[in-house]
Amino acid sequence: MSSHAGTIDHQHDHTTTTGIPNKKLLMWAFLASDCMFFGALISTHLIYRLHPPPGTPSPREVFDIPLTSFSTFILLMSSLMMALAVNAIQKGNLKSMRFSLLTTVFFGAIFLGCQVFEFTNFVNEKHLTITNSILGTTFFTLTGTHGTHVAIGVLWLIMMYVRSFKPADPAAHPFWFFRNLLHVAMVIGLVLSAMFTVLAVVHTIQTGGTAAAFAGQHFLIVAALVATLVGSVILASPRGAVQFSEANAIDVESMGLYWHFVDIVWIVIFTAVYLLEYL
Q1: DSSP at 241
Q2: What is the pTM of this model?
Q3: Cβ neighbourhood burial of 160 (10 Å; 0-12, 13-18, 19+)
Q4: DSSP 186
Q5: Which residue from 103, 229, 232 is spatially nearest to 180, judged by alpha carbons?
Q6: Integer Cα distance of 94 and 90 in angstroms
């Protein structure tokens, strides 16, 4: 594998007129358009915050900075793991790439779980919705759009992870597509059940519930968590040579560009939407 690494140039593609791989160029073009899209959403929020209409609630009374700071840190760590995944596949280390991708998925799911908890708290406890104030409209539109980008990224990461198990000789494994499809479903189920389990634990602690009460009220969620975990482990068991290799590094790099962009956008949102309220 190391001897093969020297024949692959991960930075340039001499078959293109730009010297940049077409997949990477396409991703840069998409991110440029997405940058303008988020710029419009952030600008809209800031304009209304500078000139708030009467009756607009104070963000200081709504926002939970410790929770948001924690989710921001988690998202930054996910960028580190994404970079490690790109580095691993460039070196042909498939096992390390898979571990890094799964860790990135785990961190992304934590961020989404924090956002779900935050939104639920804002609606139920702070009575801030997307329709009852301009703050709610601009806030939920901006952060919800970013959360959608993170969810799409998590799904893409899961599919890339499962893709790395495609056998080198599909003809020798006639049911490989259905197995990989089941693998995708299992990992998605694992992520969702893990998110809901954590949220259920937090809710139980907040309401003063006991472990027995948690087990009785959320038995199906815990059972789904265990079942999807066992299924994911079984489907990830070694089953011979695979097609995915160092030659597919450009695919992981393109995904990494998307994920890093989403993280950078969140840093801007965290600063402009949350931190500026306390200056």
Answers
A1: -
A2: 0.87
A3: buried
A4: H
A5: 232
A6: 9
